[in-house]
Amino acid sequence: MGNSSLQTATSAEEQFKDDLLNDVFNDSSQHILDMEKVTMIIWKFRQQPDMVRFVGDFLAKYSGEKIVFDGIEFYLPQLAHMIIHLEVDWSDSTLEEFALIISQHSLHFALQFNWILIAALEDYQPETANGDPNPTYNQTFYTRCIKLLQNMERCVVYGTPRAFELQKLYEEGNITREEYETMELADRRFNAIQIVASPHQHVGGDESQSVRSDGQAQIPPHSCSGYLYYKRGRRRKYRRKPWKKRYFIIADRMLFCYDKPGPGGTLRRAMPLESAIIEVPVPTTKTSKHPFYFEVHNQNYQFLLRAENDASATDWVKHLEAEAKTAALFSMTLSPTANSSQSLISQLDPNQRARYQFFKGERDFVRSLTDIAEELRFEPRPDRKLLAPQLISETPIPPCAYIPMCKSTEKWTRVTRILPKEARVFSTKERCPILMCFACQYEEEYVDVATYLHNNFEQDNLSEDDDDDKDRTDDPDADADADASVKITSNSNNPKSGKEDKIDSIKSPNHTSSEHPPLPPPITSSSSSSSKKQTTSTPIKTKRVLGSRKLFNTISSMKAKANRTIRSPSYEVRSTPPHPPSPRSPKVTRNLWKTQQTTSNAHDSDSDNSDNSENENDNSVDGGRRSNSGSGSGSGLPSVSSKSSRKSRRKSHKTKLSKFMKDMPTVRMPKKLVSMKSKTKFKKKAFDDLPHKTVKIFKANSDAGNPNNDPSIDKEALNRAKKYICGNENWQNRCERLTKEHADTLEPRTIFTAIISKSNDDVRQEVFVMQMIHFYQSVFMSEGLPIWLKPYRILSTSKTTGLIELLRDATSIDGLKKSDGYPKEKGLRGYFELAYGPPESESFKIAQTNFMQSFVGYSLCSYLIGLKDRHNGNIMIDLKGHLIFIDFGFAMGMAPGHEWSMERAPFKFTKEYLEVMGGVNSECFAEFKRLFISGLKAARASSQIACGLVEIMMFQSQYPCFTGKRYGNDIGLSRFQRRLFLDCPDDKIDVLAEKLIFSSLDALGTRLYDRFQLATNGIAL
């Protein structure tokens, strides 16, 4: 019996794999790339790297299309999780190369991936922030994360080496659009392979060698090593720590502490050195007994160290300071003899330096926001509200800072100031979340995040100055002059300052515009000066890759035949909207994406200060769609006017290009696809023309609490509700007030946004839960079910910090019940009647329907995803009556009290909720049951994808809901599958769904838990 069940499960798994391949590569009824199923293919075929490489190359080919890129970003948590944990056992770096190719598409994507890696690095580091041994320490994954972070930084800074030259070749008519796209993708892939295969990689360069067969750690190559005495810094009052003699090494921005040197040494501690502070205290009576003493510390680590003599101490301090000031990309790629960080930075060309400054500046800016919450956490509660505005006002704003809680394809807005007086502190026992309000400026012409960053940091802007600049380029001191010319003026965050932040442009030789229309740069187009000086000193040297030498030889040949000098590009980084172009230097508007999206007058929608993440006119985004048409106006590459001249120019290069295309590095189709392709349904179909099955990942609802979006609820009713929900000032009123208060200092086209900064909390689990809520929202909407959910943005920036989107015009049920004038005796039903009018009124019926539809959505999600801790402080309600669930620290069945949890019901369903719907016999409750049953059936129909997403995140997971004896070892996944009733026939689902509803209604455990929260935390019933 057991063998039969196992065979059936294995057969079903193989059938699912075949269905995935058919749906993605062979469904002729649709023309959409289904990112859900592409992600599943990578996971299901994880034991077959050749299939993964094939799919990765296929996906990379179409990643320049906007809706495909949206799908990639939506499934970034799963992709990043597989990149970290799967490739350690592979012989190549397929997924890592894919991630670096996508990072060259978008600096925003690179930042998101960077924060995921930082959190994973903290998971696997040798010790926790308080100095205790880390129970989840894993040397393999730890060094893997270090390597990925370093490669990501190098990829961002150095960009694509030949993008500018390819662009020039296209503009001059030497290559066609198809040839350009092929070579440009090869250039990005070549750059990724260079970085991954760099012989300078030390830490984690080969994960298979990072840990010996006997479990001992391998000591990486290093620049400084030796014995030191050390002890941990004391954070709290406990017994003194003795001095211990340990073997330290400095390597790759890390300070490693081993118990002994040599291959048998065990790693005891490790500390990141980037931006670390090295202090040599002034000798005092207290320190005189410990000569040659110095300290190394950052926010989370502190090493108290002693050397054996003065010369040794001086040498260690020198090396530590050099490593703390120097970014990883420099120590990995430039001359190891260069110790000065300034000299290392000066070796970068202007575009590389600007990308480095932006990438570092944005990370520091986000870190400073979460540091405020962390610093306030250690202050007495009464002082937190007084200290918060002061800390916010002292926060520096980089010239090109933005709130990164968005997609690459969403509207760009730049942070111009933080408003300290609008801050609000939420004090709890263990945390101090803080609400911060920002003034942001959008561009005069609509531009998305990736396009703006590309135009300012990745493309080569052409100048009209010529002879003088040419002479300067040949000057041996040109690099020093360029370095000196970069001046960054950080926004002082002074309310009286209306000046725009600037990064001064760096002049370089002029390029005379060609007769052909300029090439709208691909999303990856990065600048790299083509002067002899830079060409001969390539910062990254790696092994030869098949086809890459032919690519660049072909380019050199084309440049010679064109008989035209490609000169150093000019460069300008704008932290403010660009000034109108001069008549001599017409600015070219470049489209970043292959498939354009209509955005005319899109920025006008922000005139009412709507959120910068809610600016697209449509209400859905197709999840990873790939149009079957390869050309046309939406391709992002314009036609060239002078066709006859282009034709004659291309003729001379036809032979070489054909040879190049033939020899370009490619990936063979895996045997499984070849065998499937031989079947009738795969007959006569080329890989590039394979259609794809439709799937939609809809945009998160963006109308929560915005009265202008629903004219059916009358204004008087909304004003009455505003008194209880917003305290008489909704978000629109607040923006109007702020606009008047700062009218003299606000920049034009300013909007306001707000986020919550959080520390001492791992929000990665919340990110995953929110992704599942967004997924189920798309499932329900695809089935045409009027089920309402409000996915909101959550960004995890480390293992213990994150940013959360503010839910506008909404308050918790607890806050509503504590508001002045709330009808305590009549409860929620009384509030609805008081705010929206009598039950027979139109406004009441609409608000009641809103309540019911949102309650259905969150009841289904609570049951399916296993959400617990559903007290009234974690349930919000907005102006129009929608419920919104927040705080997902307990998910996948994990509950407070674990086995002793009082929350035994499938979901929270109180008598108050039933009263709002009108009772058991009401039409509203009947509609609730119908939608609940239909939603459960829709969720079952998409169960394979949902289970796959859970299974990926559960693999080697450190999330609390997937670890430990209670929830680890696939327990979370098996419980999730049981909640979907996968073993039950469809004709029994109606009965089972009704049982779930009535077993939840007024459940004893729900009432007991609400009373427990009232007694312990004062949360209203």
Secondary-structure blueprint:
Elements: H1 2-25, H2 35-44, H3 49-61, H4 66-74, H5 76-85, H6 94-103, H7 107-124, H8 139-158, H9 163-171, H10 177-196, E1 224-232, E2 244-251, E3 254-258, E4 267-272, E5 277-279, E6 293-297, E7 302-306, H11 310-325, H12 328-333, H13 341-346, H14 350-377, H15 381-393, E8 413-425, E9 434-442, H16 449-457, H17 467-474, H18 478-485, E10 503-506, H19 532-535, H20 548-562, E11 571-573, E12 621-622, H21 643-651, H22 654-663, H23 671-677, E13 696-697, H24 715-725, H25 731-741, E14 750-759, H26 764-782, E15 794-796, E16 801-805, E17 810-812, H27 813-817, H28 827-836, H29 842-865, E18 875-878, E19 883-885, H30 911-917, H31 923-941, H32 943-954, H33 964-967, H34 971-979, H35 989-1000, H36 1004-1017
Antiparallel strand pairs: 1-2, 1-7, 2-3, 3-4, 5-6, 6-7, 8-9, 9-14, 10-11, 12-13, 14-16, 15-16, 17-18, 18-19
Helix pairs in contact: 1-2, 2-32, 3-6, 5-7, 6-10, 7-8, 8-14, 9-10, 14-15, 24-28, 28-29, 28-30, 29-31, 31-35, 32-34
How would you portray this structure in words?
- It contains 36 helices and 19 strands.
- By secondary structure, the protein is an alpha+beta fold.
- It is globular.
- The protein starts with a helix and ends with a helix.
Compact description:
By secondary structure, the protein is of the alpha+beta class.
Q: Rough shape?
A: globular
Summing up helix and strand content along with how strands pair, one would put the structural category as alpha+beta
The neighbouring-strand order within the major sheet is 4-3-2-1-7-6-5
What does the radius of gyration come to? 30 Å
Helix content: 40-55%
Query: Which whole number gives the mean pLDDT?
Result: 74
Kindly state the number of beta strands.
Answer: 19
Beta fraction: 5-15%
- Cα distance, first to last residue? 50 Å
Major sheet attributes: 7 strands, antiparallel
Poorly predicted regions: 199-217, 328-341, 461-589, 595-647, 649-668, 677-695, 702-711
**Number of DSSP helices?**
36
